[in-house]
Amino acid sequence: MKSGFVTVVGRPNVGKSTLVNHMVGTKVSITSSRPNTTRHSVRGVLHLPGSQAVFVDTPGLHRPRTMLGERLVETAGASLQDVDVVVPVVDATAAIGPGDRMVLARSIAARSEGGIAVVVNKVDRASRADVVTRLASVAATVEELGGGERAEYFAVSARTGEGVDELVEAIVRRLPDGPPYYPDGTVTDTPEAVRVAELVREQLLRRAREELPHSIACRVTEWEWPRIRCEIVVERDSQKGIVIGRGGEVLKEVGTAVRRQLPPGVYLELYVRVEKRWQQRPDALDRLGY
Question: What is the pTM of this model?
Answer without folding.
Answer: 0.95
